[in-house]
Every structure is written in C-alpha cells, then in structure tokens.
Specification:
Blueprint lengths: L4 H18 L5 H36 L9 H9 L2 H9 L4 H13 L4 H7 L7 H6 L1 H9 L21 H5 L4 H18 L11 H22 L5 H7 L9
C-alpha cells in the first residue's frame, strides 16, 4: 500500500505519455486494444486509490477505537438492523433482561471490530446505483461530506464522440463522470474489448478528470482524518497495525 499523492498522479501522466507516443505506430486493431487498455488502466488506478484510502481509514478508525456513535446515520442504521435479535431478546425475554441490556449497551458503547467496520466501510464498484445509494454514506464516513463527488466539477463540453458525446457533454461533476465512465467505457471494454472503440474523446481530458478527482479526495481525506503528520500516516499504514489491536 502506498498513499504517495505525487506517485499516484504521476501514474496517470505515464498513461498519457504512452497514449501520445505509442498509438500512432500501431495498426488499427493493435491501436484499439492498446487504447482500450489505457482507458481501463486510468480507471483501475483510481479504483486502487479508493481501495487504499478505505483501508487506511479502517486501520486508523480501529486504532482510534471507533464505536457505534462514530458511524454515519446510514451505516448506524444498518448496524442496528443487523443486531435485531439482540434487541428482540431484551423486549421478549424478561428472565434475561439484565444480561440482554448489558449486551445492547456493549453493542452501542463498545469498540467496533475490524470485521464489523468492513461490513459498512468498503469498496464498491462505481456503478450508478452504488454512486447514488452507497457512496454518499461512504464519502461522509471517510471524508466528512456525503455530497463530495457532486462538489467536484467535471465537464466535457467539446467532446463529439458518436457513442458518448451526448452523455459526456451533460456531465457536470465527478459523480456523473464516474457513472458514465463505468457504464459506457469500463464495462464495454471489459465485455467486448476487441470490438469496442471509445471513439473521438480526449484521452488527456479523461486523465485530467481522474487526476482532479484523485487529488481532491486525497486532500480531503488527509485533512478530515488529521493525517498531515507523515509519521502518523506511516504508522497507520504499517502492515501489522491491525494485528496489534
């Protein structure tokens, strides 16, 4: 795991260099395959970045002894729903009401386990449904803002792709961009790589969009979780930190 922002942003630039310096030397089929690979690579780089910050958040939260009251509302509600049996015991089993109460109190006041936290704070593929329903809660939990993706302005006013021109021209923010990119580019390449061509879209603009989203998520993540201290961040990223808890 490596959360070096400069290294991550440079990775995006490397894809740009390959795109600008290697495509023209290839024949049509090889050109399409390499181009698709590059479009998929920038997406995968972003996914890996998300997975890393989620994992770092979990490591920090467990180290800081996160409990129920630290969960955002959506995750807290799911946490309670998953413990319906314990609450039922309190109301239905009067012979064990004290032990049931103690159990409930522990659930609400005790530290969450890594397994508990990973049930709610996790990476999900960036499909529209997940971006609409799950990611606002995730962004609020790890970044402090449930509308963070909507707050990042992303626009493609000049694209004239036959297949994606209309959709991309309507994009206004990171959430909409990620939804369209996942559905129309990532999924199409994954399912029909040799037949699919992205078309006349600016690869450089796609790279710049992912760089901007990555940059802003990184800065907000570091600020919200108070990880400006590089030694603190290195300690959180230690391989054995969770084993020591």
């Amino acid at each position: 795991m490596n959360l070096d922002k400069i290294r991550i942003l440079n990775t995006y630039d490397e894809y740009n260099n390959v795109y600008n310096n290697s495509l023209d030397s290839l024949n049509d089929n090889a050109k399409i395959l390499l181009e698709n690979s590059l479009y998929l690579s920038i997406f995968t780089t972003f996914e890996l970045f998300l997975k890393d910050i989620i994992d770092i958040y979990i490591r920090k939260a467990i180290n800081d002894r996160i409990c129920f009251s630290n969960l955002v509302d959506s995750f807290a509600i799911e946490y309670l729903k998953n413990r319906e049996r314990q609450f039922d015991n309190f109301f239905k089993n009067q012979n064990q009401i004290l032990s049931s109460f103690t159990n409930i109190k522990s659930l609400l006041e005790g530290n969450l386990s890594e397994e508990d936290l990973r049930t709610y704070v996790r990476f999900e593929f960036l499909h529209k449904k997940k971006l609409d329903k799950y990611y606002p809660a995730l962004m609020e939990q790890i970044l402090g803002k449930n509308n963070f993706l909507e707050s990042i302005e992303i626009e493609f006013p000049d694209t004239d792709s036959d297949t994606l021109g209309v959709e991309l021209r309507e994009v206004k923010n990171a959430k909409e961009f990620l939804s369209i990119y996942t559905e129309k580019i990532r999924n199409s390449i994954a399912h029909e790589n040799s037949q699919f061509s992205v078309g006349n879209i600016s690869f450089e603009k796609c790279v710049e969009s992912f760089k901007e989203i990555t940059d802003k998520i990184y800065d907000q993540f570091i600020s919200y979780n108070e990880l400006q201290d590089t030694e603190r961040l290195s300690f959180i990223m230690r391989d054995n930190i969770l084993d020591s808890e």
